[in-house]
């Protein structure tokens, strides 16, 4: 049975609070959305702390960016770009500190290194670092286009991260996994850098990833 908008709103609030409690977003940072129907997308509001959202705060927009209810996030164009180009049911944008720090300190990286951590290959395949775009701008959606629909988890250079999925749980857990990966990479960088796995092991892990599919695990 399809859940009501009220039930979906409560799920978005719970996910936002979970990310807040894990320091993956602060105050009014970040935004979460859910494609409730072909005409309605639930999205968290602009300017309100994710720790204290109420169901009546939730905004609703259409896929063509008409505001149907409330005051939606100023970064909604990024969400709409993802919904337009993918079968996403949910999109989560957060500000994981270690992911942002790596994009600041390693501006030449185009993606997270995948040759040292098997979890990156198995859980996400790859994690690109999307070029910087000003928060709230139309460019935030445009810079994602080269990475869609084949990438579900992406670092937004100097800004944060975004993950989309077949469920809100997948999108939320993708952000959590990304921050853990980046914490490990951050520590390894401080110890002299990560050492790659043997090439044959990387090939074996990539083969396993193909069997898993595109989803984030």
List keywords for this structure.
single chain; 217 residues; alpha+beta; L-fuculose-1-phosphate Aldolase; 8-stranded mixed sheet; 7 helices; 39% helix; globular
The assigned CATH architecture is 3-Layer(aba) Sandwich
Cα end-to-end separation: 25 Å
Total strands: the figure is 8
User: How many helical elements?
Assistant: 7
Question: Roughly how much helix do the residues carry, as a percent range?
Answer: 25-40%
Q: What Rg do the Cα atoms give?
A: 17 Å
- Average pLDDT works out at 95
Structural class: alpha+beta
CATH class: Alpha Beta
H-E order? HEEEEHEHHEHEEHH
Folded structure, characterized:
The structure is a single chain. The chain has 217 residues and is of the alpha+beta class. It contains seven helices and eight strands. It has an eight-stranded mixed β-sheet with strand order 4-3-2-1-5-8-7-6, with helices on both faces. Strand 7 (153-156) and strand 8 form a beta hairpin. Helix 1 (5-21) packs parallel to helix 6.
